[in-house]
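Dear Dr. H.,

I hope your travels went smoothly. While you were away I took the liberty of generating a structure for the chain from your last submission, since the lab meeting agenda had it listed for discussion. I wanted you to have the full record in hand beforehand rather than looking at slides cold. The sequence, exactly as received, is reproduced here:
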Amino acid sequence: MHVTSHLDALPTETLYEALRPITVPPSSKYARFSNWAGTFTCFPLAVFEPESEYQCELILELARREGKVVRAVGVGHSPSDLACTTGFMLRTTKLDRLLEVNVDKEYVVAQAGITLEALHAHLAKHDLAMINVGSISDQTLGGIVTTATHGTGINYGVISTSVMALTLLLADGSRVSCSRTERSDLFIASICGLGSTGLILNVTLQVEPAFRLREVREMLTFRDSVRQLHPLVHASQHVRLRWYPATDQVNVCSADRSVEPCKPVGNWFWDSLLAYHVTQFLLFISRYVPSLVMVIGRFAAWLTSGYVVAIDTSHRIFNLDCGFPQHTTEWAIPYENTQACLEDLRTWLRQEMDDPRGLRPHFPIEIRFSDSDDIWLSPSSGQKTCWIGIIQYKPYGFDVPYRKLFAHFEDILAQHGGRPHWAKAHGLRPDALRRLYPHFDDFVRVLQEVDPKGTFRNEYVQRHIFGRKEKEFDGRVFKRYRPSQGK
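The corresponding predicted structure, in token form, is as follows:
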């Protein structure tokens, strides 16, 4: 039901004029959207870059009158079509202010369009830090919240568990606050809501006093790392494993809070020349000589084979260099299934690598962990979780075969109770998701209550949450390259 507001009296032509200064010209390259990896591209009907909440209200009012979908997007880092739309696109990157800092109670209030990199800098001025961070800090705060993005740490939840409250602009134009004590169903739905419950304006985020991390990196054999998995995962606060199938080795990275002085590691020769430039060139050659992938995998493992101790500001240890644009998929499995799942993956990959015509995985396979939570659509909902992700790099932006590799990977993860990362492309539809998520129907109920006309339902949401099967909702409708290489 539409909430009567002061905007109702505005003529539509006045709306157009008011939105003109924040509308990206159709001739601009920014009128087209591509995600960071360059794997999905869309041409929205209009792209808006609001600088105030009032301008967001104007966009929603125009969408309501014209029956258009509104899709909020940050920096577009999701390696799927989660942000894509043929309707109105609302870029949040100018809604990027820190609104409140409470040092004593250890929380901040920030606009959803602020990037984590900018948030880290603001927090540092107040001697504060995020509790946990994922592998990158390029994304917006709203983006990580609405997809339940995670870091690593078996006793640390996904980043959405640090959210204390949200301010949303709903489809009917109303501005509402929600938390675990106020409109709790809307809150739980929104902190992994895929941008479909409403436009996130502000996020109240729990933080902690600034800290340094001491990370120890060492290479183990696959057998030793899997055999010792439980003690390894619980021995430190934040543990991630980076598995190199070509050498059957795992780089174990274990980090804990520390008061020791900073001791950053890395240099131009190893990290830039060899790990980046040489590796990318070799990966480019491997597009024509697939057998070279195994050699490059051994080279990459050798680059990380030493025993390393690094001490630095927390987010600098949490973050990694993602390297080059890439195809990627990541799934979450119940923690207790980790060892069996990794063994099954190894068996399959050994078969592929022993076959001269087999599939050739890139590297590393990243393995991380998170605590259980009660967020309806969080892949960690109700279970401690192991996250396993694979990648296929796109050297210099050129495409590579990946679909068969990912399909086999996903089949194995599904056999072990896997749930896909929401920001990454996957093929699950409502029937499958309903079996994985006991509160799936509760989530749908909230969407129908707060957005009955589907203002925030882009193609991704229509496909995965509401099961739309028409051609315009197909999972490859926004693919940058069609048909993609299916090898």
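Two observations you may find useful: Residues 482-487 have pLDDT under 50 and may be disordered. Residues 268-286 form the longest helix (19 residues).

With kind regards,
E. W.
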